Amino acid sequence: MPDVPEGAVSLPLVFDAPRGRAKPPRHLADLDEPGRKALLEEMGLPGFRAKQLSHHYFGRLADDPSEMTDLPAGRRDELVAALLPDLMTPLRTLEADRGTTRKTLWRLFDGALVESVLMRYPDRVTICVSSQAGCGMACPFCATGQGGLQRNMSTAEIVEQVVAGARSLARDEVPGGRGRVSNVVFMGMGEPLANYRAVIGAVRRLTDPSPAGLGMSARGITVSTVGLVPRIKQLTDEGIPVTLALSLHAPDDELRNELVPINTRFSVDETVAAAWNYAKVTKRRVSIEYAMMRGINDQAWRADLLAEVLNGYGDWGWVHVNLIPLNPTPGSKWTASDPADEREFVRRLEAHGIPTTVRDTRGREIDGACGQLAATET
């Protein structure tokens, strides 16, 4: 395996999508409450109507203007156009697990395609959202990474994935009866911390009290990253106690350089140190994501090395390892670990005092599992 994968040096120094593209229409979810009021007033519309529109969107989960009967009929269309423009069109929804796992393909205003996945469990409902159309991190075992980056998503486009899922639950469209979204994971398409401003905006809209936002607990939100160290440090200072999930996938630089090319810029030691500091400051346990690949990163000695790296910061329970059986992607040479090797990996980590679980894979048959989102219309 090469020390530095081909193409790794071309990763951008600034982790943002190219500028100059047309922007999505501005939506109330892009703005805080004062911003919504100000926008209406700038357009010559009554600012106090912003709170009513927010109540319809976040509180009632309404998407039909005719249901917004507290808005004056003569100005309803203007108000809705100003703050509730259409952002995304659902093209297809695939179901698995007897309808409790639903993957939706969305077309954005400019034709870009993204996917989100709703997963209903007996005790919770989790929505996995995308934060970018495509991804620029180029991890070779991930279908999204192989497609490259098209653009960043707006705050409202990210939020709309959650609101759409919440509508489906409220309207009893998901088996199990009416319900609500309890967890949101930024583990769909894209590198969330490469679209930092929009992702933080989305987190704030999800956690703002109703009707300003969805009123979720920050502890029910997980933000994943492959290890953009400057952004992890920035997130540490935000004061929002979300769970940080670090997609590590290897405990040594030689292998991680190949599996996660950004590692050629931020080493394992730098990345884990930033995650540990996040845990220390926020008092939130960090999740280490580790995709198990047969004969690549699943050797028992690598489990020992991973434990050594993580325990280097003490054994005060700052971290949890989440092993992910690798999900197949078309044409990939990477395959899932043998179950016996997976069990030994778990045993070794637990013997070193590292809490470890193996992720319950959902949606594999509809290409809705971790690493499988590619957003194609075929």
UniProtKB/TrEMBL annotation:
<feature type="binding site">
    <location>
        <begin position="190"/>
        <end position="191"/>
    </location>
    <ligand>
        <name>S-adenosyl-L-methionine</name>
    </ligand>
</feature>
<keyword id="KW-0963">Cytoplasm</keyword>
<dbReference type="InterPro" id="IPR004383">
    <property type="entry name" value="rRNA_lsu_MTrfase_RlmN/Cfr"/>
</dbReference>
<feature type="binding site">
    <location>
        <position position="135"/>
    </location>
    <ligand>
        <name>[4Fe-4S] cluster</name>
    </ligand>
</feature>
<feature type="binding site">
    <location>
        <position position="142"/>
    </location>
    <ligand>
        <name>[4Fe-4S] cluster</name>
    </ligand>
</feature>
<feature type="active site" description="S-methylcysteine intermediate">
    <location>
        <position position="370"/>
    </location>
</feature>
<dbReference type="GO" id="GO:0002935">
    <property type="term" value="F:tRNA (adenine(37)-C2)-methyltransferase activity"/>
</dbReference>
<keyword id="KW-0698">rRNA processing</keyword>
<dbReference type="InterPro" id="IPR040072">
    <property type="entry name" value="Methyltransferase_A"/>
</dbReference>
<keyword id="KW-0819">tRNA processing</keyword>
<keyword id="KW-0949">S-adenosyl-L-methionine</keyword>
<dbReference type="InterPro" id="IPR058240">
    <property type="entry name" value="rSAM_sf"/>
</dbReference>
<feature type="binding site">
    <location>
        <position position="139"/>
    </location>
    <ligand>
        <name>[4Fe-4S] cluster</name>
    </ligand>
</feature>
<dbReference type="GO" id="GO:0005737">
    <property type="term" value="C:cytoplasm"/>
</dbReference>
<feature type="binding site">
    <location>
        <position position="224"/>
    </location>
    <ligand>
        <name>S-adenosyl-L-methionine</name>
    </ligand>
</feature>
<dbReference type="GO" id="GO:0051539">
    <property type="term" value="F:4 iron, 4 sulfur cluster binding"/>
</dbReference>
<keyword id="KW-0004">4Fe-4S</keyword>
<dbReference type="GO" id="GO:0046872">
    <property type="term" value="F:metal ion binding"/>
</dbReference>
<feature type="binding site">
    <location>
        <position position="327"/>
    </location>
    <ligand>
        <name>S-adenosyl-L-methionine</name>
    </ligand>
</feature>
<dbReference type="GO" id="GO:0000049">
    <property type="term" value="F:tRNA binding"/>
</dbReference>
<protein>
    <recommendedName>
        <fullName>Probable dual-specificity RNA methyltransferase RlmN</fullName>
        <ecNumber>2.1.1.192</ecNumber>
    </recommendedName>
</protein>
<feature type="active site" description="Proton acceptor">
    <location>
        <position position="115"/>
    </location>
</feature>
<dbReference type="GO" id="GO:0030488">
    <property type="term" value="P:tRNA methylation"/>
</dbReference>
<comment type="similarity">
    <text>Belongs to the radical SAM superfamily. RlmN family.</text>
</comment>
<comment type="function">
    <text>Specifically methylates position 2 of adenine 2503 in 23S rRNA and position 2 of adenine 37 in tRNAs.</text>
</comment>
<feature type="binding site">
    <location>
        <begin position="247"/>
        <end position="249"/>
    </location>
    <ligand>
        <name>S-adenosyl-L-methionine</name>
    </ligand>
</feature>
<keyword id="KW-0489">Methyltransferase</keyword>
<keyword id="KW-1015">Disulfide bond</keyword>
<dbReference type="InterPro" id="IPR006638">
    <property type="entry name" value="Elp3/MiaA/NifB-like_rSAM"/>
</dbReference>
<dbReference type="Pfam" id="PF04055">
    <property type="entry name" value="Radical_SAM"/>
</dbReference>
<dbReference type="InterPro" id="IPR007197">
    <property type="entry name" value="rSAM"/>
</dbReference>
<dbReference type="GO" id="GO:0019843">
    <property type="term" value="F:rRNA binding"/>
</dbReference>
<keyword id="KW-0479">Metal-binding</keyword>
<keyword id="KW-0411">Iron-sulfur</keyword>
<keyword id="KW-0808">Transferase</keyword>
<feature type="domain" description="Radical SAM core">
    <location>
        <begin position="121"/>
        <end position="364"/>
    </location>
</feature>
<dbReference type="GO" id="GO:0070475">
    <property type="term" value="P:rRNA base methylation"/>
</dbReference>
<dbReference type="GO" id="GO:0070040">
    <property type="term" value="F:rRNA (adenine(2503)-C2-)-methyltransferase activity"/>
</dbReference>
<keyword id="KW-0408">Iron</keyword>
<dbReference type="InterPro" id="IPR013785">
    <property type="entry name" value="Aldolase_TIM"/>
</dbReference>
<dbReference type="InterPro" id="IPR027492">
    <property type="entry name" value="RNA_MTrfase_RlmN"/>
</dbReference>
